[in-house]
Amino acid sequence: SYENAREIQEKMRPSIDLDLAVTYSNMGLLYTSLNDTSNALLYHQKALEIRTKNLEVNHPDLATTYNNIGLVYDQRQEFSTALSYYEKTLKIYTQILPDNHPWLATTCKNIGLAKISMGECMIGLNNLCKAREIRKIALPSNHPSIASICGTIGGIYQEAGDYTTALKFYEEALDIGKRAPHIDYACLAMTYYNMSRILNELKQYDKALKYAELAVQSASKSSMTTNSDAVKFKKNFEQLQTKRL
């Protein structure tokens, strides 16, 4: 359908038409979802070329395009290039948006994850925590985006071996996730699993087993849990059961 729209627009509209840029952008997003990064970049760059010629330098559509290109480079694990586009996005957003706008939080999160992937862990964590603070101000206290960023931060601390801090952020993610208007059981299951693994490392076997069981139960309530994750949760639960015997 996008190809049909593109062919019609390219015949009937000027090559710098903004509606054509929208179609290019939509095609870029679809190719990103299909993991076809070459075509994704091709169409996002086409959209960027049109928008650069037609829009003010701080237009939000330019920021969106920069962010979309950054996500493609992120997918390619070219984190330095991704970061450069995220920073272009942030530069525009800081000029045109309120200090606590959710889009700023998303950009800070993207920058933070790119920095961590580049080995700049503390700078990355600072950006993730900034994203969390913005979301806590801008969004309802039970919004899943707050739970998501807390879980992400918890994962970074878990990987760094700071289990106490990791548990604190996972607990916050759980509290928010269980109060969300629509509970994401797949996310809850992963958080329970991660907490179970940490508690096992801390030799708190009873609590570890409890959270392992909750991970299995939550996964069974979700159609979004992958088979590999479900198997992983069950294996963890069974191993902890064996340890109790």
From TrEMBL:
PANTHER family registered for this protein in UniProt: NEPHROCYSTIN-3, TETRATRICOPEPTIDE REPEAT PROTEIN (AFU_ORTHOLOGUE AFUA_6G03870)
Q: Where are the TPR repeats?
A: 21-54, 63-96, 147-180
Pfam families per the record? Answer: TPR_12
Could you confirm whether the keyword Electron transport appears in this record? no
Which PROSITE patterns does the record associate with it? TPR
Q: Does the keyword Repeat apply?
A: yes
Instruction: Name the chain's protein.
Output: Kinesin light chain
Q: Print the keywords alphabetically.
A: Repeat, TPR repeat
